[in-house]
């Protein structure tokens, strides 16, 4: 393994020779698409096959065409990550939320306290449910789905919402536990 890069993770960060080919392909695609490799891709690659399994599910939920819009999925990411105080995910997905909405103010407000953002009814219902499932999963009941239905969400959208909330709760814990630091590029992304 390569020398630890303290700015990226508490754990040693593997080099190209230390990871499966699928990881290096993902690193190369990221470099080409974004101009950098997200630190989450490097830090979690300590266990390359486990990282790829996580990435495949994460990619399916967050980056593919689904039942929620990209902006809604990123809203969930930022709400959940802000509640969990996950620095990496709040900042990186705050950048994505700014990109998908074109609204830097709302994205920043959501990252700190989504209630202070002037969210439309559907987004507000999504944020409320994301907070409930994050803070008190043992208290969730059938009735908690009603506000989602009232804003027009169907079973497919609700199921995807639940899965995205669950994914970010898990990912937040991993990122926080290994001390992932956001790439500098996220701080200025989609701000102009």
From TrEMBL:
This is Peroxidase-related enzyme. Residues 50-102 form the Carboxymuconolactone decarboxylase-like domain. One of its GO terms (molecular function) is peroxidase activity. Keywords: Oxidoreductase, Peroxidase. It comes from Ornithinimicrobium faecis. SUPFAM superfamilies: AhpD-like. It comes from the Bacteria. Pfam families: CMD.
């Amino acid at each position: 393994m390569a020398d630890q890069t303290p700015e990226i993770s508490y754990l040693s960060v593997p080099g190209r020779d230390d990871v499966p080919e699928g990881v290096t392909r993902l690193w190369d695609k990221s470099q080409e698409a974004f101009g950098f490799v997200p630190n989450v891709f490097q830090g979690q690659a300590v266990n390359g096959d486990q990282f790829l399994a996580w990435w495949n599910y994460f990619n399916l939920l967050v980056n593919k065409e689904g039942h929620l819009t990209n902006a809604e999925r990123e809203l969930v990411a930022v709400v959940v990550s802000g509640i969990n105080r996950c620095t990496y995910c709040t900042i990186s997905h705050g950048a994505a939320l700014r990109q998908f909405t074109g609204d830097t103010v709302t994205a920043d407000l959501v990252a700190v306290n989504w209630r202070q953002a002037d969210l439309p009814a559907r987004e507000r219902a999504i944020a409320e449910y994301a907070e409930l499932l994050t803070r008190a999963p043992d208290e969730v009941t059938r009735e908690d789905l009603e506000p989602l239905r009232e804003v027009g969400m169907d079973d497919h959208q609700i199921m995807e919402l639940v899965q995205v909330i669950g994914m970010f709760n898990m990912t937040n814990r991993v990122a926080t536990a290994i001390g992932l630091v956001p790439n500098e590029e996220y701080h200025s992304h989609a701000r102009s």
